[in-house]
Structure formats: C-alpha cells, structure tokens
C-alpha cells in the first residue's frame, strides 16, 4: 500500500511545455492506400489466442494486409480529431521513404522506377483539408529512395519542392520536416542499397539547406532516431542499427528540433526482430520506465548536436510493428499516461502518438473510428493538464506515479495525474483541501472499455462526446484502485 500527501505549496516549477504536446501520426500508407499491419483477432486482443510467429524478414508479408486510402472526410474521424485540440500531424512512416508525388496524374497510379507507391493530388488534398479542419500543423518526411537520386548518387530536391509548393499554394503549408523516416535502420526503410551514415549526413545537410533557402519558416527536424539500445530492456536481436551519434557526427547543418522514435518493444508481430514484453509485464516499473530512459538518452544527443532545441518523439507507441495485442485495450493506458507525464519532467517537446486511426495502436478503431482507451486519456489530458510543469516531489514507485501541471482552465491551482500501476494494491492520497477527481479505469484490462469515475465513456450518434464530468472530493484520504489513472484538480 502506498500513500502520499499532496502539498501544493511545496511544488517547484520545472518548465513550460509546447501546447501541442499531444500530437499524432497519419501514416503515408493511410493516405495513399497500401500495405499495413494485419489486425489482431478478438481472441488475440483478449489474450485468449496465441499469435503465430514468423521466423525472419522474408516472411514479413504474412503480417501485412492491403488497405484502401483512408477516408479523411469521414465525419467521426474529423470531429474526434478536432476535439483533441490543436496538434501537429505527422505524415511519414517507412512507406513515405519511397512514395512518388503525382499531382497531375501523369503516372496513372503506377509508381515510376525507383519508387514503390504514388500519392495523388486528391489524396493529398484530403490530408491537407483534414489538417486544416482540425487546426493542426503539418510535419512530413521526404522520399529518400532510388527514385530521388542525382546521377552522382546525391539526393534530388525536385519531388520535395513539389510537395512544399503545392501544400503552401493550397493554403496548408508544411510547418516542419524530417529528411527521412528512421535512418538508423535503412534496410527496413526503402533507401538505396548500401546507404551509409555518410550518405545520410550529406543528404540531410542538402535537405536542410534546401529548406533554409526556400522555406525559411519551416522547422527542420531530425535525425528521427530509432532502434538504438539505450537500455538493457530494448533492442533488435541481430539487425544492424546505425547509432544516431554516428549519423550526426558528419552533419554540418543543425536541426531546429531533435527527433526520435519511442516504442517500448516489438509487438508479437515483430518478436523475431527484437525484444518483446508480455502483457503481464505491461504495468511493471521496468516496462513503464523505458520511455524515460529513451528521453534521457536522446537528451544527451540533443544537447550535443542541437542544444536548446525541443525534443519531438515523432512516433510513439507501445510496440513497433503495429502495436501489441493489448495496444487497443485499457492495459496500454498506463504506459501512455506515464510517458506523457515523465517526458515533461525531462524536456520541452511534442509526442506524436502512432497512429491516429490505423492498426492496433491507433487512437481510433480503423473500421469504426470509435475511440479506443488511449484516445480518452489524450482527451482528458488536453482538457485538464496545463502547459506549466511542476516537480511533484514524490519518488516514482509501484502504485504511485505522480505528475503535476498547471490547470488547463487557467484557474489558480494544479492538476495532478496519478497512476496506480500496482495490479493488486490500492493507493491513498491525502488531500489538503477539496478537489475534482477524474479516474480512468476498466472492468477488464484487455478490453476497449474505458470508465470515467465508474461510468462507461462512449460516443453518441456520429461523433457526440459524453460530458467529461469530474467528481467533487473533500479534504482527507482518497483511495485509488489498482491499475487506474486519476486526474485530480485542486485550487489554491
């Protein structure tokens, strides 16, 4: 049993966060249509059915399914995205590295030599309209495949110029750009064969200069680090990973924003690639601490190569390769909540949840666009947690992960987010005065059900959200059930 006594008078200010902290990805393959991760079965999601393993990359196709382009005009998806509030939307993913931009229809939908997919004008318009409707800012990564090479092997900016100019002229300019997705593991990303760290440094420098000279208002973001063994709890088995430090050593142009990707592990789909954690470990201290270890690791590189820059986690999810079997359930809410809370104690920046509405880790169900548990967490965070971050003064331990921000409503006081990740023990909070409580829970951890103060959260009609009403609590002892996330607003 854990107990803490809240004392708002002793809180110390840490920093002010970007108001678009909670952001998300729409994969390029969602926009164009194409292959993505085959959904788990209901039995696999519930933990009642095993997932069949593959042996190596040659069998990767068995994990995939072909999907049509996402309907970005669908009312429910648009309204639920808008309800989250202003965000960055990143359009990228491994598929973006080899996508051809065809805005006049000359390809007839057939990828030119050196590319693997085609983005049409209509598809990009739908994405730009979505970004504008939900009051987002756009982050993209570029194609970096055989199709965008000059005769001497260097990167050619013609396709990038087409994308930037078209988006600007359409009225939804690109706000930020990474050169490419996940350069640390080029074998998986569609780059030219034998693409080296030196090649990346040369080409990213060329891209950043291209941005500075032609679109000086656009933030340059990089290196988009991924796959590095920053902790004994993560890592590929045998795949070669180029360290971000190596990628950046030869770079001349400094990024405006330092970026990396954060997945706690490989999902059941990708267990052949590297470390996989099981569902019974999903609330453990070691597992929940992985994003914090990543933030500290990459903070050192940020300070070395672009001191003072924000850090953007341009992909974040429970597990690479589409998410774990429990990614779409309440069990993953504890990880998402802890990553948000602890990241803010390390640095200013933005976390891009992967994805908004595709695969098992999406905020929304791919078919119905109904919210999954992580959506409700993000919505409550954005409704309650302000941008000013404070040190709670409490050591993080099983049963009590406590994070403190200013109130989003602007009133004097604070919002606490307290995670009880103990599977069996209650936690207790001593309140010095009255407050308002918002507790997220589920009767079945491996289900899509989310309760707010014991009442199910559901969307009414097409996209009508329920009233996210808190429960008034008096000064004294407050009990927190196991495996719950509680937001608590207090006045001073």
From TrEMBL:
SUPFAM superfamilies: (Trans)glycosidases. Pfam families: Glyco_hydro_79n. GO terms for cellular component: membrane. GO terms for molecular function: hydrolase activity, acting on glycosyl bonds. Gene3D superfamilies: Glycosidases. This is Beta-glucuronidase. It comes from Candidatus Blautia merdigallinarum.
């Amino acid at each position: 049993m854990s107990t803490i006594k809240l004392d708002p008078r002793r809180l110390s200010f840490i920093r002010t966060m970007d108001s678009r902290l909670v952001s998300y990805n729409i994969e390029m393959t969602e926009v164009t249509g194409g292959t993505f991760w085959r959904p788990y079965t209901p039995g696999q999601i519930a933990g009642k059915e095993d997932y069949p393993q593959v042996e190596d990359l040659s069998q990767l196709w068995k994990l995939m399914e072909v999907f049509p382009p996402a309907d970005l005009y669908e009312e429910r998806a648009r309204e639920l995205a808008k309800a989250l509030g202003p965000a960055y939307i990143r359009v990228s993913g491994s598929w973006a590295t080899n996508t051809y931009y065809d805005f006049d229809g000359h390809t007839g939908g057939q990828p030119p030599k050196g590319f693997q997919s085609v983005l049409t004008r209509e598809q990009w318009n739908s994405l730009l309209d979505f970004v504008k409707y939900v009051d987002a800012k756009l982050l993209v990564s570029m194609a970096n495949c055989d199709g965008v090479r000059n005769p001497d092997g260097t990167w050619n900016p013609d396709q990038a110029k087409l994308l930037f100019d078209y988006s600007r002229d359409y009225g939804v300019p690109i706000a930020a750009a990474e050169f490419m997705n996940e350069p640390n593991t080029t074998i998986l990303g569609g780059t030219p064969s034998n693409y080296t760290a030196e090649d990346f440094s040369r080409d990213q420098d060329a891209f950043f200069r291209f941005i500075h000279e032609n679109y000086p208002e656009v933030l340059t973001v990089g290196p988009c680090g991924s796959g590095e063994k920053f902790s004994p709890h993560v890592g590929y088995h045998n795949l070669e990973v180029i360290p971000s430090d190596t990628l950046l050593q030869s770079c001349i142009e400094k990024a405006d924003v330092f970026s990396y990707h954060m997945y706690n592990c490989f999902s059941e789909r990708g267990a052949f690639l590297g470390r996989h954690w099981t569902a019974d470990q999903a609330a453990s201290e070691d597992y929940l601490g992985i994003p914090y270890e990543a933030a500290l690791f990459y903070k050192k590189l940020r300070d070395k190569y672009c001191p003072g820059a924000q850090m953007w986690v341009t992909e974040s999810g429970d597990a690479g390769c589409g998410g774990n079997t429990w990614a779409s359930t309440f069990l993953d809410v504890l990880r998402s909540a802890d990553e948000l809370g602890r990241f803010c104690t390390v640095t200013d920046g933005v976390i891009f949840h992967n994805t908004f509405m595709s695969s098992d880790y999406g905020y929304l169900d791919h078919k119905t666009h109904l919210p999954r548990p992580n959506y409700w967490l993000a919505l409550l965070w954005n409704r309650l947690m302000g941008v000013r971050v404070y040190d709670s003064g409490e050591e993080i331990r099983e049963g009590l992960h406590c994070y403190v921000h200013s109130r989003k409503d602007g009133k004097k006081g604070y919002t606490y987010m307290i995670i009880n990740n103990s599977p069996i023990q209650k936690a207790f909070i001593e309140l010095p005065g009255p407050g308002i409580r918002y507790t997220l829970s589920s009767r079945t951890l491996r289900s899509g059900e989310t309760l707010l103060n014991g009442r199910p959260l559901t969307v009414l009609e097409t996209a009508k959200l329920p009233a996210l009403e808190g429960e008034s609590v008096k000064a004294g002892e407050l009990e927190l059930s196991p495996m719950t996330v509680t937001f608590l607003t207090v006045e001073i």
